[in-house]
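Supplementary notes (optional reading)

For those who missed the lab, this is the record we used. Protein: Spx/MgsR family transcriptional regulator. Length: 115 residues.
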Amino acid sequence: MKVYGITNCDTVKKALTWLKDNGVEYEFHDFKKLGVSDEKLEEWDSKAGYEKFLNKNGLTWKQLDPAVKASITGKEPALQLLQQKTSMIKRPVIEDGGFLHFGFDPETYRQHFGK
């Protein structure tokens, strides 16, 4: 099981604490240190749609130039932006077999991990 995120994100911290407290082992992928591949973004888009993981509620989106926001008119510009600004990916991203989830939701975690 793999968790993608950044270590200073409060939501990621909550998710990692939940996983540890419930005995769920994971591998952590730090976006800030390791980035994210084009292939991974394409994979997530094909499974969930980029709209699901493009975080428009975060500070990074809110601080973007309005012209940049206006240029995000579809998949390609969105994925290019996410590649450049990984802090705009909704976090954490959980991959566990066929399970893919964006964000922290204890109930979804309980259901998936049976805890």
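If you only remember one thing from this example: The chain is about 50% helix and 15% strand.
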